[in-house]
Structure formats: structure tokens, C-alpha cells
Amino acid sequence: MQGITLCSIKTSAYPVCRYFNRTVVSLVKPAQSLGAVSESCIWKTNSFLKLFRKRLCISAVAHQDADNLTEKEKRLLSNLYTGLISGQRACLAEAITLVESTHIRKREMAQVLLQRVLSHHREQETLNSGEPLAFRVGLSGPPGAGKSTFIEFFGKTLTDEGHKVAVLAVDPSSSTSGGSLLGDKTRMTELSRDMNAYIRPSPTRGTLGGVTRTTNEAIVLCEGSGYNIILVETVGVGQSEFAVADMVDMFVLLLPPAGGDELQGIKRGIVEMADLVAITKADGDLLIPARKIQTEYVSALKLLRKRSRTWNPQVMRISAKTGEGIQDLWKKMLEFQNSMLTSGELITKRRSQQRVWMWNLIQENVLLHFRNHPAVKHQIPILEERVRTGTLSPGLAADMLLNAFSKSS
Ligand SMILES: Nc1nc2c(ncn2[C@@H]2O[C@H](COP(=O)(O)OP(=O)(O)OP(=O)(O)O)[C@@H](O)[C@H]2O)c(=O)[nH]1
Ligand SMILES: [Mg+2]
């Protein structure tokens, strides 16, 4: 009975932690003095209170940051936060727009919001026995591999099973073609109408080949809004997939059944990162080439360095046209998730990803600060030109710029 009471208080008390702290103390302390509460219940209560105090500290940090904000901004953030965690799509969209903003004030607000969403996220994870609430999957492949068509089919399969799916489409090609994302939206017509799916193109600016710093933050916001499967689509032509691999639990490479030449653009390093390779369009006339490519990749993967203690990358065939192989692919993905969770590799991976991401942000910001610093800004093109024409060594040019920068900062 006491266990049940404690458990139900636990669940309902999270949103009102301050009240809970007081309530539990006032309920348990007198009962304890009367000898009506067992040792184990007291122990559970104490550890739970410790957790709450920790939670209050996290809130305090967020509140400290929020102190710089005006009342109006605080109200706006509060509404956005409440709407976001209760699953309102409009609030999620607005929150992602806020984190994508380059406006300094808005970035400050975005950080306060993110901090709150992260605290909420941590609480939810604690309730989930410390296990991640969402499965993050990166999907990459060369242009035209069939990524969007696959996501449309796969996404529908997942929402039919009751999942909430968020698709973050990172598309570096859209800045040049100007309409690729529009194309994606029309290719994902069914999924974009589904109330349990949310599709969001990422802006193309940023230093990581289309993946912006905000993709990672958008993942956090989607999870805070209750999406439990996050698909991040990238075109495998640049650095973007390396950056995406550092944000997701599983990295899936989609390859069309094309000859060697067409796959030249796919860098070996990308194949090395794949936890699963899916040969797309395995239907009709393309079935035979798909089988051939599958065999080639099975042999190729055997030669690659093993990245996980428990998982061997697999090669599968799928068709988004006939649906063939897509359920099997999902089963394999769950198998991967399970094995990574059981071995503890998933948690370790997520922790190291956080660290990598922090350094990515530092690098990006330090470089931006350096390039725009008045002491070096005008020197850069002149020295670059001298290095290019061979009148100055790269090392000397770098030293000159760094010296000018450090003297003036
Ligand atoms: N036969 C067959 N064709 C497919 C399949 N999936 C996609 N296609 C076709 O392949 C072409 C490219 O598909 P997309 O889904 O747009 O490919 P993508 O990888 O998203 O392309 P980008 O976003 O431009 O990089 C389209 O003409 C699709 O109709 C499939 O399973 N079978
Ligand atoms: Mg696409």
C-alpha cells in the first residue's frame, strides 16, 4: 500500500515538485515517528527527495538564466514550454524556429527553453528507469537513393503501430536547387498529413555540410514534445552524415542498386559508420542489381573495423514501392536498439555525443569569433592570397593571424 502510494505520488508530483517536497515530508515524517512506515519506504522516500533537490537545482540554473529576460519574454517562453511538452505541434514548430534564430536575444531565450525541456526530459527518463525515451535514427544516402520515399512508407508503418515520428530533413542541396525540400514535402504527402508525424526541414546554413548546430537542439525539442522516434535525413554528399552520426543512436545508410561509378561519391568513411546498410528499390527490374549490391556490401563490411562490441552491421534489401523488407528492417533496428541498451553502449554513446557536440559548438563559435575579430578580419583575405600564391608559408600566415588576435584580445 505504502509502495503504491509512494509510486502514485511520484508520478503525479513531477510537475509540482516544490509542493511534492513539502507534502512528502509532512506525510512521511509524522508517520515515521509513529513507526507506521517501513525502513524500505523511508529509504525510497529519502532517495526520492534527494532526486527532487537535484531537480530543484537544475530549475534554479534555468531560472538564473531566465532572470535576464523581460516579463513578456518569460511569459512567451512559459507558454511555449507548456505547449511544447503537452505535444502541441504549433509550439514545437515555434520552439524550433526560436533555436534556429541567429538573433542574439532569441538565442538566449532558446537556451533557457532548451534547459527547461532538458530538465523535463531528464525527469521523464528517470521515470522510464533511466532509459532513453526516444530512438534517434540517422538516414543517409546519395541523392535519389530513395530516402524520402522510404521515410514516407516507413513513417506511416511506425505511426500505424502507435509511435510518434519526427522527421528532420537536412538537405544541403536545397540551397542550390532551391526546391528540393519542397519536393520532399510533396513526396511525404501522406506522412505530413498524419497527426502523429512531424516533418521539419532544417535550414541549410551552418558549417557541417547542412547539419546545423540546431539539428541537435531540434531533436531535443521533438523528444520533449513526445515524439519517440526521430528520423534525421541527410544527403550523403558531404560532412553532414558525419555530424548526424554524432547525434543519433543508429546510423542507417540507404544505397540504390546502382553500379560502382554511381556510388563513387559515397565515401568509405560513411560506410564505416553505418550500423545498417539498406539497398533500396529492390523491386521489378532493380531486384537483381539490388541482390548483387547486397552481396558486395556484405563482403565489404566484413573487412571494416568493428565499431561495436555487440553489433555487426547488416545489409538488407528494401522497397518502398512494394513495402518488401521494411518490417524486417524495423525489426533489425529494434534488435540493434535492444542490444545497445542491454550492453550499456547506447548510454555511453549518448554521453560521449554530448561531449562531442559541446566541442563542435565551441569550435564553430571560436572560429566565427576569430574570423570576425577586427584585429584579423581584414588581414585574412590578404594573407590567404599570399599563401595561395606561395609568397608566404601557411604556418607563418597562421602564426601572424593568431598573434594579432591574441595581442588584441
Ligand atoms: N522502383 C522504386 N523506385 C523508388 C523507390 N523508392 C524511391 N524510388 C524512386 O527514386 C526516386 C528518388 O526517390 P527519393 O525518395 O526522392 O530519393 P531521395 O534519396 O530522397 O532523393 P534526394 O532527397 O533528392 O536526395 C524517385 O523517382 C522515386 O520514385 C522504390 O522503392 N522502388
Ligand atoms: Mg529526399
Automatic annotation (TrEMBL):
One of its GO terms (molecular function) is GTPase activity. It comes from the Eukaryota. The keyword DNA-binding does not apply. GO terms for cellular component: cytoplasm. It catalyses: GTP + H2O = GDP + phosphate + H(+). Belongs to the SIMIBI class G3E GTPase family. ArgK/MeaB subfamily. This is Metabolism of cobalamin associated A. It comes from Xenopus tropicalis (Western clawed frog).
